[in-house]
Amino acid sequence: MQKVFEKPQALSDTPFAYCPGCLHSVVHRMIAEVIDELGVLDRTIGICPVGCSVFMYEYMECDMIEAAHGRAPAVATGVKRMLPDSVVFTYQGDGDLASIGTAEIVHAAARGEKISVIFINNGTYGMTGGQMAPTTLIGQKSSTCPGGRDAAAAGYPIRVCEMLATLDGPSYITRVAPVDPVGLTKTKMAIKKAFRNQVDGKGFSLVEVLSNCPTQWKMTPVESLSWIDENVVPYFQPGVFADR
Ligand SMILES: Cc1ncc(C[n+]2csc(CCOP(=O)(O)OP(=O)(O)O)c2C)c(N)n1
Ligand code: SF4
What we know:
9 strands, alpha/beta, binds iron/sulfur cluster, 17% strand, globular, 244 residues, binds thiamine diphosphate, Rossmann fold
């Protein structure tokens, strides 16, 4: 019988340990598919995050390096500069990239480092108990703002794509919302473009994925996708912010 659907080669046999309905596993699979489709498994090096996907190295067949919280762009910079023919990606949550790692991502983008960044914005620190993140919406509840985020006390959510797009360094910056079939297709296309840019020798590429955390949001997986569509998308509008 002809095989019409199979696990990407870049994905290991280790079953995902993420909560049911969490988009981390979906995005991992898309990255693996892209690595397969571009034929770059033997020269891809991923930089693992701190956060729920800290064990990404268990799920990928490419080389993976673990970086300290927020420091993935700095590690990726070193790897890419030493091995310019490698394909280097970071995978970072909002607690990782937009909080403790803000300096690293801003300067890597400003330098136009030839790396691909996959930024998972789920509006919370999923791994550590659902605390407020820099991307938590105004009024959104978390374990550290049970009454909802108050701008007077905690400021406003950071729009990373718009901020980085003011810099001249980045080649490609986009935000996607994989909450329905169209959004899933666009997410895969964006990840593929971010990787292909690197294969083509272009500079810094970042894909912000509007993601979920059904466990800490205390929602079913389906409710969490609707919540993204109705509440997150209006503030963090999907689109292409730089394509040079
Ligand atoms: C230097 C340092 N500070 C704090 C922590 C604790 N810590 C682990 S994961 C995490 C937040 C991760 O949130 P995010 O990046 O949004 O990923 P998610 O778990 O939501 O996927 C924090 C603060 C740590 N590991 N290292
Ligand atoms: S805690 Fe949230 S981000 Fe972490 S695996 Fe579970 S659903 Fe995903």
